[in-house]
Structures are given as structure tokens and as C-alpha cells.
Input
Amino acid sequence: MKVLIVGSGGREHAIAVSVAKSSQVDKIYCAPGNAGIGFVAECVDIGPMEFEKLADFAQEKEIDLTIIGMDDPLVGGIVDEFEKRGLRVFGPRKNAAIIEGSKAFSKDLMKKYHIPTASYENFTDPEKAIAYLESARMPIVLKADGLALGKGVLICQNLEEAKEGVKTLMLDKQFGDAGNEIVIEEFMTGREVSVLCYCDGTHIKPMTSAQDHKRAKDGDQGLNTGGMGTFSPSPFYTKEIEKFCEEKIYQPTMDAMKKEGRDFVGILFVGLMLTEDGPKVLEYNARFGDPEAQVVLVRMKNDIVDVMNACIDGTLDEVDLQFEDNAAVCVVLASDGYPEHYEKGKVITGFENFENKEGYYVFHAGTKKTESGIVTNGGRVLGVTAKGKTLQQARANAYEATEWIQFDNKYMRHDIGKAIDEA
Output
């Protein structure tokens, strides 16, 4: 069969590597892809938001399955365009992808269906938002309602910071129209855990847990990023917590979306905070996390194509989802200055060190193939991932592997997975 993957980052590279393992697949395309994806798929020069061109390509090439990796096209309705043409596609329709596309929608959904989350209020008027903050307890969290590349969340320690945050999001429009409406919610404390789930509109199957590191610098300092590294599984996500989440969060979310006429088919990413009062939902995403996909998919035993087809066909309940009894750690190699200002075009060397090394992976995020070789082409450049019998071993292996890759302006955090030692 022929598969098309839509996207260009480390997540899509991880998906492509998983798809390539399937005995059913003999040809993979990726639009637009990147230099690393080019080793396992044929890259096609079509942008992820060019829905009609992508659907035309899928029809012309007789693609059997299209996998949408990114949030923007999902929220924009790419699945609806493909389905309208009778094309087989994996991902939620536009009316279901709103669970990520609008923070206000997802918070209101949780309130309506009693799914545990932080208390909150939504605002479209900056003056009313500031008036609310005058009597709110600090610290407090401000979230842009729309998509903001994982960066539209501000944690404000005091009233002055919170007022400045409202200005940044709603008046200065740092994240464009994503800040037309904002969510102001209570600041929760505890361990963060990410759980990706396969969904078929009725049934939901959670994958193994992971934990992301969003801040740019060691010790969770610096600006929010798309993710500087992750590990899987989380030692804090116990069997008891998993059972609670399945009963009070995962299935109720699926049921809520169905009741709203928004059947969710695809990947539901549930960001959790393990508070003293029990697990609560931080956020929902409508696709694989990045870099969570890089540590979760390498541990999955199932044929990813079988699982995705079961989601589309509504037979996910018949799938026995299995993961290896080990661990994985991903360390993101970024361009120094990310997420603000950074240079591109730096030649990357050392990829040959990963050849025939079992349990080691280098997933490309922001790379480009040129006459000079593969060069940096983004803030997050590579996701160096390694497995190990234990989390500590996987962490040691991943950091060892970061030394195999070299490029000017290479930057990384040195404490990815440090929380493992506290478990």
C-alpha cells in the first residue's frame, strides 16, 4: 500500500519510521517532509495547508492512507477535504479538532461534562481580563485561545506580570489571532504527564506515558518552546492514576465529543497535571505530540498502520495495544537562540554514527538537504532518541548520542529526564 504523511517535523519523521516498519507498506510520501524524512519517504513539495493540492496528489498517486501529523491542517479542516473526495485519511475532522484549536472550547467542554481541570474564565475583552486579574490569586496562567505553536501559555507570578501578559496576547498580538480570546486559569502544581491516545470516535486506547520539557533552559528556566526533550514512560504515572484517568478523563472526553456531534477519530493528546487533588487536564491536542511521538512510537510493538486503520473503521476495541517493557529518552538539539532569534544553514555532521545502532535514532525536525550537505533549517533541529532497559540507561544513551552530532550553534538542555532520579 501507499501512504502519504503530511508535515515536516520530528513527529512526522517518527511517524514515517514507524510506517516504514509495516510489511503492508511499499511506498511512503511526505509533504513537505525534511532531509531526514527523505531517507524513508519521497518528499513532495506541497505545503501542509494546501488541502486541494494534497488531495489532488493523493488521488493522482492512488494513496491508500494519508496521515495528518500537524495541528494547523487538522484544525483547518484537511480531513473534511479528503473525506469529501472519498480518500482514506487518519485524523479528526475540523469539528473535532477544535478540541485543540480553541482552548475556550475545550475548557467549556470539560466544565460541562465534569472532566477534572483547573478553574478558569474566558475573555475577549482585555479590560475585563485585567479587571478579573485584580482579585485573582497568583501565580496564574494565561493561554491564547488558538494555535500558537505550543508557546501561547504564560505563567504569571504576580499582577504586574499578568497585566503585561494580557497586553502581549490580546493587544500586541504576539501570537496573532490566537490571542483574540484568552483563557485565564488557576495555576496548578504537580508532575506533568503527557498521554497520547488512539481514538475511533467511540473507543479510546491510551499509549504509554511520556513527560515533555517545554522551557528553553536547564532547570525549567527560559521561554516556552515547542519542546526541548522528553522521556517515556513517566514513573509518576502509576497504575492507579492510569485507571482514574481512563474512567474520569479519557473515555468521558470521547463520550462528551460524541454527545456534541463531534466524534473524535485520530490521536487525542491529553496533557495532565498530577495534583494533590488527583490528575487534572492541562490541555488537549488533536495529534501526536512533538517530541512525545519520538519516545512513544519507538516503544510501540503494534503495526501502526493496523492501529490507524482500526481507528478509521471504528474497530479500535479489537486492537491489543502493546509497548516494549523498556524506556526511551529524546534530547532536542536546537539552534542557539531558539525560540527567538537563531541562524539557519549550519552544516550538520555525524549522522553516520547512528547507522546500524539498535535502539538509537536521530529524528530530523528543522533540516534541509543542500549541495553542502544536510543543514539546519529551524529552531529545533534534531531529536536524538535512545532506548534503554531503564529510564536512567535510556537517558545516558541519549546524551551519549548527542555527542555524535555536530553543527555550529548547537544547543540543548542537559537535564532532560532529571526528574527520573526523584521518582
Remarks:
- The CA atoms of residues 230 and 292 lie 6 Å apart.
- The mean pLDDT is 95.
- DSSP finds twelve helices and 22 strands in the chain.
